[in-house]
C-alpha cells in the first residue's frame, strides 16, 4: 500500500486542528467573559497535541536523515556496508535509492581496489627483483621477499635504517650506492660471482620524497648472453678461417704439382693468391685483437682543422663544420680509427663518393660528429643490431667496424647513434663530451 506524501499528511493534520480549534474558540467565546480569552485557551490546549502529532508524523523522516548522516560518516571512514530500505516514494524515496546506488558503486570499487592491491602485492613480493622503498628519514617503508633474502637474511626490513642495512651489505654494493645513480656491480670471487644491476628512482608519495631501489641479479642472463656471443664469435672466426685456409691449402697443393711438372710460369699467380689470402687473414685476426684489447683513451688536446686534414689524407669525404683553431681533448689515434671505419662504411653503402660527408658541430658541453651518406640506409632490424659486435650484413664483414666505433665513443664518455636520413642514406652520429 502506497503511503501518502508527507506534505499531504501534514496539511490534513493542520486543517483538522484548525477546524477543531476554530469550533472550540467559537464555543468558548460564548461561555467566557471577556470572550477574547477563548483563543489563548484553545491555543494552549491544542498546541501540545499538534506538536505531538507533527513529531510522530516526521519521526520516520528524521530517523532516515540521521541514518543517512551516519552512513556518510561511515563512507568517509571507508565502511561501505550500509544500505537502506524505504517504502516511501517521492523525493525521499529517490534520495534513498540514489544513496543505495552510491553505496553499491563504492563497494564494487572498493572490492576492485582490494583485488588490485592483492595482485600488486603478490607481484611485488614474488618478483625476483629486490625492491626497497625508502622514506625521507631513510627508513625502509617496504621490502619484498627478494630484498629480505638479499639484505636481511629473510627477516622483515620495514622500519629498519637503510644506512645500517648498507653498512652490513657487501663492499661492491656499498660502492655502487656511494657512486649514485644506476649501475652494475659484482659480488663474490671469479669462480662464484654474481652480477647485479642497481636502479634508483625518486618520486613523491603523500607529498614527501621517497626513493625506490631496485636490485636485479643479472648473472644467469649475462652468462647466457656470453655463451651466445662466444658461439657467434667461434662461428664467425671458423667461417673466416675456412674461407682463407681452404684456398691456401688448395693453391699450395697446386703449386707443388706445378713444380713437379716444371710449369714454373703459373707459380707466381698461385703464390700471389696465397699471399693475398694470408694477408686478409692477418688483417682479420688483427682487427679482432684490436677490438678485444682496446686500451683506455689517452686524452690530449687536438686542433680540429689539423685532425680533419690528416683524416682526409686517408679517406675521401666532404666536410662541413667548425673552422679555425677549435680544440678538443680526445685520443686522436682511436678517434681517427673510428672515423675511418665509419667513412669507409659510408663509401661502401652504395652512396656516390661526393655524397659522403662529415659534419662537426659544437654543442653546449660536447662535440657532435655526423658521418652522412646517400646509400641504401638500414631497415629496422639492422638498425637495432648494427652496433653489436660481430653483427654484419656484408658477405665478408667482421661486424667490428661499428662496434669498435661505439666502444671508442663510450670509452670517451660519449655515445653513438644510427638513423636513416630523409631522402635516403644513413647518419652515424657520435657525441663526445668536451
Automatic annotation (TrEMBL):
It holds the Pfam family HATPase_c. The keyword Acyltransferase does not apply. Residues 236-434 form the Histidine kinase domain. This is histidine kinase. It is an enzyme of class 2 (transferase). The keyword Ribosomal protein does not apply. Keywords: ATP-binding, Kinase, Membrane, Nucleotide-binding, Phosphoprotein, Transferase, Transmembrane, Transmembrane helix, Two-component regulatory system. It catalyses: ATP + protein L-histidine = ADP + protein N-phospho-L-histidine. The chain crosses the membrane at residues 37-59.
